[in-house]
Amino acid sequence: MSHVVVVGSINMDLVTLAPRFAGPGETLLGERFLTVHGGKGANQAVAAARLGAKVSLVGALGDDAFGDQLHEGLGREGVDLTHVRRIAEMGSGTASITVAGGENQIIVVPGANACVTPADVEAAAETMRHADAVLVQMEIPPASVEATLRLGQQLGVPVILNPAPARQLPLAWLQLARYVTPNQHELAILLGEEQGADAQDFRALMRRAPCPLVLTRGAEGAWYRDRDDAEPLHQPGFKVEVVDSTGAGDTFNAALAVFLHEGLAVAVRKACATAALSVTRLGAQGGMPKLDELERWLATQG
To answer: Which of 145, 147, 255, 302 is a plausible cystine mate for 121, CB 3.0–4.6 Å?
Structure first.
């Protein structure tokens, strides 16, 4: 059993299904509304737990009804919440998500996630010391992301940095990560080349990065480059019928962390497969498969 520590956000997702995305100033009738437990940190924690890992989460919840529901839900998934603080007189984080045609648009309000501090990360040092991998994203304050990267290096524990939502980061931070897991647009932002990101050669961007990378490419799969690799290697994606892509990146990152001890190539393949399964169902956490489901499905893929 892998032990994965996740440092990140916990949100309540407010999801609207619509026939298409509304334009500026337009009122559009939706098809369905539901609340779904989310946040990149919580999503990755749940996905890792369903894949059989022991999971500890470092984060914060508000002192509100959403916080109660989110705390209870994570507990049901078997996630260790010892290092999840409840912040008095503060609302929990929310994400307003519109899903149309298998794609999504998301607006996040951080709430209590903005209160995750470097001290919270340091308080979890003993837990991190015994982890096989640590996951961190960018929905918490940058100082806490840096603290996670530095603590992981100090403890000799591999930290996977999922740079989403993307922002330009000091190159020194990237060098602290064992792997950085952007998509092409996020990588361009990290390297300070946001303009024309989608038109750039992603392989050239990967070669410029000062750190090992696992670059996600949606249905195409993933490309990865370890510190000693001259050229990026490709893991093809798996063909599935897409219902909802929400949470696919979080599922990918969780699987990468869970299976990293099996070697990078194996972990990337299993991460692509786990993400592919997740998009065949609605909801971020709702679509995340369990280990036995993943193993059965992979056995049919050759």
So the answer is: 147
